[in-house]
């Protein structure tokens, strides 16, 4: 996703069936003519075409057989009337079009837009035309897709992606499940996706951000009351929204009231994990951070970050005195699944502290079926989530929101499913989907930093759910700032930690909780 556009999106995320209910409400209850709505969608898409390709003289428009295709015919009409050369291809036989989609086809035809049925164009001719275009408009499949694209859609999507020409996807990149963000077959990779009426959850998680490019939202001017017709499935959050929730510190604050976090991490050979989590926690503002790690890692930790208190622990019993007097515990990064990790786990779970459980803590839990616990945040990546639920990673990807819900249901507390569009789930509130982050963060140690950040916010007094989604937003923002400075590929967890103080200073500038979020555009 284009980071410069990231803050203009609304907070409410919908599944496809909910957006369909909003569409129906706009038409049937709010009295907006369906064809007028389609015209509005086409104009909104065409505006983005002009914005992203201001010099476009030739466009290819590919239209499917539903209302997404209908939008496409009207985009083609807009382009044609603007004097562009238009190659419009009907991928579904126009005789099979119904309702507004048929009216859109008829209108485009009557205006003189050249429309060819796909069977009349050889594969090579289609490919050549795509390659000769300045931009391609994908109006093949929208929210009405079921399963993976069937022939000939699959083949056409492959051709579009291979052409290497910028694509504007109308409403949803074709092939993407708008509810879940799963691309179960061929899927369009767009440069921009103007999306209408409700922001689809699938654009923000899983394969969505990769396929959609720059997401631009347009409510098509439907009345506010339209939104009573369906509930959002989740909230889209980012650091700009989250930072307003952090209360500024009292002028007379002292370290004793800013929370004491214990990080239990770093089995033999994995000492860096604990150091990263502990330093991230300190940089996120915990008053005191103690790192309990294998004795051989103590001097490295102190050299790296002398503000930490670092204790070498060999047996579970060594942890007991450290556990009394702290306000929360992060357990798991680099803890291993051997006797050291097992003994530490036993001690940590026996106490009532608020917990962040990550990495090996989750692997140990997967084999032990622990009791549910409410004051904990579990932070699995999809592989760990699959082990915790006894299913496959691809079953997690099928529906990330549903997977986070299952994790929360099974283990209690807060479940945070990592990956693009991190999902944070608790029982009583709408889940959060985190906007931001970048592929430079796909490197060892980034998750350790996240667990330290969340632990730090927990001991500073935030409830578990807030600590989790604020922490994940802060993590993504710090990763994006670091990437803007030095690029993505060479990013290291230390770079992200280095950005935390500047990110946090946003909340100091913004001021007290409840101050207006986002300064929404
Ligand atoms: N008035 C409104 O409501 C507004 C709606 N708007 C627009 O409508 C869009 C939703 O339109 P929609 O509901 O008609 O569904 P759509 O995405 O076109 O797909 C249905 C078509 O796809 C086909 N198809 C399905 N799966 C397939 C597969 N796997 N592989 C291949 N084909 C497959 C399916 O064929 P069938 O299965 O029926 O044979 C049918 O032909 C929405 O995204 C937005 O763009 C805007 O204009 C605003 C106003
Ligand atoms: N492509 C990406 N886009 C956004 N966030 C990412 C991406 N890749 C990784 N991340 C984030 O980086 C972190 C990686 O965590 P994890 O896989 O547990 O790493 P490790 O175990 O090595 O510390 C997660 O918070 C994840 O959401
Ligand atoms: K589309």
Automatic annotation (TrEMBL):
Which is one Pfam family of this protein? YjeF_N
Q: Which residues form the YjeF N-terminal domain?
A: 19-228
Q: Provide the alphabetized UniProt keywords.
A: ATP-binding, Isomerase, Lyase, Metal-binding, Multifunctional enzyme, NAD, NADP, Nucleotide-binding, Potassium
Among the GO biological process terms of this entry, one is: metabolite repair
The residues the record assigns to binding (6S)-NADPHX are 67-71, 142-148, 171, 273, 334, 381, 448
Q: Which reaction does it catalyse?
A: (6S)-NADPHX + ADP = AMP + phosphate + NADPH + H(+); (6R)-NADPHX = (6S)-NADPHX; (6R)-NADHX = (6S)-NADHX; (6S)-NADHX + ADP = AMP + phosphate + NADH + H(+)
Q: Which cofactor does it need?
A: Mg(2+); K(+)
Q: How is the cofactor bound?
A: Binds 1 potassium ion per subunit.
Q: What does this protein do?
A: Bifunctional enzyme that catalyzes the epimerization of the S- and R-forms of NAD(P)HX and the dehydration of the S-form of NAD(P)HX at the expense of ADP, which is converted to AMP. This allows the repair of both epimers of NAD(P)HX, a damaged form of NAD(P)H that is a result of enzymatic or heat-dependent hydration.
In the record, the note on similarity to other proteins reads: Belongs to the NnrE/AIBP family.
This chain's protein is named: Bifunctional NAD(P)H-hydrate repair enzyme
């Amino acid at each position: 996703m284009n980071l410069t556009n990231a803050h203009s999106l609304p907070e409410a995320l919908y599944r496809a069936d909910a957006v369909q209910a909003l569409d129906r409400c706009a038409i049937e209850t709010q009295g907006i003519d369906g064809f007028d709505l389609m015209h509005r969608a086409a104009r909104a898409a065409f505006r983005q075409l002009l914005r992203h390709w201001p010099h476009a003289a030739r466009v290819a428009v590919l239209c499917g057989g539903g209302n997404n295709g209908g939008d496409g015919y009207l985009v083609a009409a807009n382009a044609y009337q603007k004097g562009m050369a238009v190659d419009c291809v009907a991928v579904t036989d126009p005789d099979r079009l119904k309702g507004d989609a048929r009216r859109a086809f008829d209108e485009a035809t009557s205006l003189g837009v050249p429309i060819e049925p796909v069977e009349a164009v050889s594969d090579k001719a289609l490919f050549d035309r795509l390659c000769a275009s300045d931009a391609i408009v994908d109006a093949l499949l929208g929210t009405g897709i079921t399963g993976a694209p069937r022939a000939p859609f699959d083949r056409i999507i492959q051709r579009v992606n291979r052409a290497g020409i910028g694509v504007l996807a109308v409403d949803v990149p074709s092939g993407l499940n708008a509810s879940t963000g799963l691309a179960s077959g061929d899927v369009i990779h767009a440069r921009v996706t103007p999306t209408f009426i409700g922001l689809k959850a699938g654009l923000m998680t899983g394969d969505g951000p990769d396929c959609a490019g720059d997401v631009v939202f347009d409510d098509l001017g439907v009345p506010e009351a339209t939104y009573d017709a369906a509930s959002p499935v989740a909230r889209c959050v980012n650091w700009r929204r989250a930072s307003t929730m952090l209360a500024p510190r009292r002028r007379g604050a002292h370290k004793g009231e800013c929370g004491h976090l214990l990080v239990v991490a770093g089995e033999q050979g994995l000492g860096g994990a604990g150091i990263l989590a502990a330093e991230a926690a300190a940089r996120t503002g915990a008053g005191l951070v103690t790192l309990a790690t294998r004795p051989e890692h103590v001097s490295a930790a102190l050299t790296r970050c002398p503000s930490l208190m670092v204790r070498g622990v060999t047996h579970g019993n060594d942890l007991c005195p450290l556990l009394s007097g702290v306000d929360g515990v992060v357990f798991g990064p680099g803890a291993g699944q051997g006797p050291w990790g097992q003994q530490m786990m036993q001690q940590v779970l026996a106490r009532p502290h608020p917990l962040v459980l990550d990495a090996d803590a989750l692997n140990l839990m997967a084999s032990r079926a622990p009791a549910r616990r409410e004051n904990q945040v579990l932070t699995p990546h999809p592989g760990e989530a699959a082990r915790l639920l006894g299913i496959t990673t691809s079953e997690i990807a099928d529906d990330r929101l549903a997977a986070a819900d299952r994790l929360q249901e099974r283990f209690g507390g807060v479940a945070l499913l990592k990956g693009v569009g991190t999902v944070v789930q608790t029982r009583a509130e709408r889940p959060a989907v985190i906007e931001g982050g970048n592929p430079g963060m796909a490197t060892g140690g980034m998750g350790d930093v996240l667990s330290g950040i969340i632990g730090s916010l927990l001991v500073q007094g935030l409830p578990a759910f807030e600590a989790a989604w604020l922490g994940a937003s802060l993590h993504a923002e710090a990763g994006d700032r670091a990437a803007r400075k030095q690029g993505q590929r060479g990013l290291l967890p230390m770079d992200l930690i280095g950005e935390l103080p500047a990110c946090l200073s946003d909340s100091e500038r913004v001021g007290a909780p409840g101050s207006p979020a986002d300064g929404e555009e």
